Amino acid sequence: MDHAMPIIILAAGGATRMRGRDKLLEPVAGVPLLRRQALMARAAGQGPVVVALPPRPHLRYDVLEGLDVQLLPVADAAEGMNASLRAGILALPGTVRCAMVLLADLPELTAADLRRVADAVDLTDGNMIWRGATAQGAPGHPIVFRSDLFPALAALEGDSGGREVVSQQADRMVLVPLPGDRARLDLDTPEAWAAWRARNPDAVQD
């Protein structure tokens, strides 16, 4: 594992299906989800953690206060996920050989999961992408991109989340199975949060 690998957390989206609530501020084990994700990324390695955020002022900045992470306002965040991905990639030092991209709204991922994906990275084997997957093999997050792909990621527009780049590298991608469905499980509605909490009364502890 490259212990200095940067991690980009995509956290600039509007959470429009939450009907006024912000899913990234929902508590998980007593901690706002976004703060939990930043702490998880910080614990996963020694590299920089970049958090792409909506423009200030926004409550998401408050829950990240005091953490050793780079807060990256995304002026065009309303465009969609690719604006955050673009900004995060462009914020990286030019010497970086790969970077991990993490969605902010996956409440069951752990630091050990991130390390497992990072440990699979081998920059000598010709692959371009290493990606977390469910236990059944469905592709999910986090995703590590080799720096060769940074120009393509930095040129994306819209809300695809980099799917075009990923699909073009399907034969040079390594899937890393993680326990259960946590590589894909996100909670986009109040009902989904209520159902998840009913199944996980103590939420998730790393």
Automatic annotation (TrEMBL):
Gene3D superfamilies: Spore Coat Polysaccharide Biosynthesis Protein SpsA, Chain A. The keyword Magnesium applies. Keywords: Magnesium. It comes from the Bacteria. GO terms for molecular function: nucleotidyltransferase activity. Residues 8-169 form the MobA-like NTP transferase domain. The keyword Magnesium applies. InterPro entries: MobA-like_NTP_Trfase, Nucleotide-diphossugar_trans. This is 4-diphosphocytidyl-2C-methyl-D-erythritol synthase. It comes from Sulfitobacter alexandrii.
